[in-house]
Amino acid sequence: MNLDPVIHAPVRLQIVSLLATASEAEFSFVRDNLEVSDSVLSKHASALETAGYVHIRKGHVGKRPRTWLKLTDQGRAAFREYVATLQRIVGQPLSNTVQEAS
What we know:
Residues 11-90 form the Winged helix DNA-binding domain. The protein is built from five helices and three strands; from the N terminus they run ααβααββα. It has 102 residues and is α+β, with helices and mostly antiparallel strands. The protein has helices spanning 5-8, 10-19, 27-34, 38-50, 73-91, and strands at residues 25-26, 54-61, 64-71. It starts with a helix and ends in an 11-residue tail after the last helix. It has a single domain (5-79), classed as Arc Repressor Mutant, subunit A.
């Protein structure tokens, strides 16, 4: 069982998790919810876009530039598989060499 390395980075996992609950989210909303800087979010969003997991749309609201992030169908499928893999890992019984502390 391998976890998707594109999603596995903590900030990227948070981005994908947040976007999985919405059709689209404004960059500033994602940044504020994840409590990261613009540059950190931009770097990780670009990596997700390169992988085909996120679509980045730029536009304007009035005269102000805005950026929106959207999970692609491929990204949704990858996130579902990532979560399913985590569930399989967590659902596995502990080996005999690893036991709870008494």
